[in-house]
Each structure stands twice: as structure tokens, then as C-alpha cells.
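Hi all, posting the design record for the shared folder.

TITLE: backbone redesign
STEP: 1 of 1
STRUCTURE INPUT:
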């Protein structure tokens, strides 16, 4: 495995491999890697000849500078995990390498990016599209892998690829959870032991709501989740939305869609956690 810090060095390596007919998979990450990332990486390794993992905390997708400052940076540990997974290249550039000048591009994929996170984190998805489009241009992957935990992000990236005609396949990978159900997240490292226990209520409530929904309406299910989280110690609900999984628009009846998804964002102390669940 090679760790590469510049665009030119990475492209030289990849161009030589492409001349040999090698297929390239890309897993974009912001580092602080865990088993959820590893599941994406292992899938890329299995499905491609060459796997590139980017390890870059992208400043343009943070609308809270405090959140950016506190985001964990663990490149050394990340590289150990990635080497064990069979990765070929870790791309760990500086901010100056990616943004030698400010990126002023504006992306709009309404209505996908005007709901949920789009309301509460203005500018976030524009930053995501800036960095992901740059990585697609730099790496030119055949496939790129993203986790379904960031459900809205995945939908927006799929739409960006469609509209911008990137010649690649987007592969969505299932949420990876701890044995007790908590969705894996780099932000979990910021939780105290007590908060870690409190955060369990998020996934527990989502699982309960999936059973509850079988005999209750959309509005009753929404109310059930909101009340459960609001009554839980240490948690503060930002939003819970029941949406069509393709359009991300709120549904009022289970008959409105054949692909209902519940998307939730909760603060546990100062740590902002997201999760989602599909209703069958």
C-alpha cells in the first residue's frame, strides 16, 4: 500500500495501472475510519483491481468551524486499517493541494438538497459535491462506494453523477452497526461512556418504529419517534422525517411510496448523530 499526498503522484500511479487494463474503485472518506468504512473498502477491493481511499477532512462541507476543528484526524491508525483491508493507495492530500484557490462552484440538486440536512446544514451538500466531484476528476474511478448511513448524501451524489455524466457506478453499502445497534460513526469517538449508552436510544427507537408502523399511520409513527427521543435523557431531536427513498420528500401516507425511509438527526450532548431505517 502506498500513501500519496499529491494529485500528480496519484494520477501517475493510476494512469500506469489503467494502461494495464486495471479497474479502479474509490472510497471517499474523511478519515477517523471504523468498521463501517472497512466494509466499503473491502467491497471495493473485492470488485476492482485497484482500490483508492481518500483520507481528507473537507473544510468546505462544514458550516460549523467548531465541528471542523473537533473532527478526529487519525491518519496513522487509518493507514493500518486500510493496509489490512488490501487497499492499494491512500490519498491523503493537504487542503492546499485540493483547494489551491477557493472553490466557488455552486451545486443545486433541488429538491434532494433542500430538505432535512439541507435545511439544518446550509452549504453542507455544496461542499460535499465540491470535494466528491474533484475526487472523481482526480481518480477517474470505475466505481465509487458510499455508505447508506448518509442516506441523503448518497441520493445527491447519485443525482450529481447523473446530471454531470460522470462515467462511473455509484455503489451504496448498508449501514454497519455495533452489536447493540448503534450506527457506526467517526463522531462516536467523541461520546463519553454515558453518552454512548444514551445514544443507543436512537437506533432502538428506529427499530421499534419499524414494527409500530405496521399497524399505525405515518403521522402516528412520526409522533412515536419524536416523543421517544424527546423524552430520552441526554438526547435532543433535530428532526425525524419519513420520506420517499428516491425523492426524499415527506410522505403523509404509507400508500404514497413503496420505498419509505425514516431519517433522523439527534444531538447527544454536543455530538450530532444521524441514522436512518427502511420501512417494509
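Okay, here is what came back for every position:
SEQUENCE:
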Amino acid at each position: 500500500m502506498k500513501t500519496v499526498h499529491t494529485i500528480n503522484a496519484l494520477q501517475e500511479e493510476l494512469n500506469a495501472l489503467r494502461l494495464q487494463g486495471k479497474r479502479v474503485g474509490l472510497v471517499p472518506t474523511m478519515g477517523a475510519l471504523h468498521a463501517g468504512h472497512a466494509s466499503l473498502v473491502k467491497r471495493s477491493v473485492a470488485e476492482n483491481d485497484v482500490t483508492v481511499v481518500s483520507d481528507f477532512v473537507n473544510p468546505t462541507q462544514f458550516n460549523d468551524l467548531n465541528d471542523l476543528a473537533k473532527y478526529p484526524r487519525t491518519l496513522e491508525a487509518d493507514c493500518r486499517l486500510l493496509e489490512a483491508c488490501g487497499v492499494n493507495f491512500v490519498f491523503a492530500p493537504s487542503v492546499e493541494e485540493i483547494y489551491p484557490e477557493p472553490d466557488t462552484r455552486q451545486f443545486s440538486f433541488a429538491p434532494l438538497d433542500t430538505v432535512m440536512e439541507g435545511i439544518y446544514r446550509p452549504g453542507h451538500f455544496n461542499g460535499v459535491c465540491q470535494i466528491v466531484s474533484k475526487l472523481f476528476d482526480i481518480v477517474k474511478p470505475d466505481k465509487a462506494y458510499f455508505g447508506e448511513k448518509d442516506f441523503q448524501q448518497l441520493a445527491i451524489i447519485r443525482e450529481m453523477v447523473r446530471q454531470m455524466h460522470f462515467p462511473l457506478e455509484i455503489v451504496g453499502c448498508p449501514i454497519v452497526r455495533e452489536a447493540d445497534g448503534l450506527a457506526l460513526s467517526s463522531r462516536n469517538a467523541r461520546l463519553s461512556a454515558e453518552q454512548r449508552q444514551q445514544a443507543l436510544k436512537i437506533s432502538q427507537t428506529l427499530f421499534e418504529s419499524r414494527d409500530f408502523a405496521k399497524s399505525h399511520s405515518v403521522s402516528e409513527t412520526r409522533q412515536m419517534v419524536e416523543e421517544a427521543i424527546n423524552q430520552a435523557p441526554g438526547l435532543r431531536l433535530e428532526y425525524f422525517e419519513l420520506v420517499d427513498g428516491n425523492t426524499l420528500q415527506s410522505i403523509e401516507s404509507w400508500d404514497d411510496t413503496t420505498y419509505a425511509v425514516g431519517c433522523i438527526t439527534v444531538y447527544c450532548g454536543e455530538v450530532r448523530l444521524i441514522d436512518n431505517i427502511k420501512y417494509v
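COMMENT: Residues 2-173 form a domain with the Rossmann fold fold (CATH 3.40.50.620).
Let me know if anyone wants the other runs.
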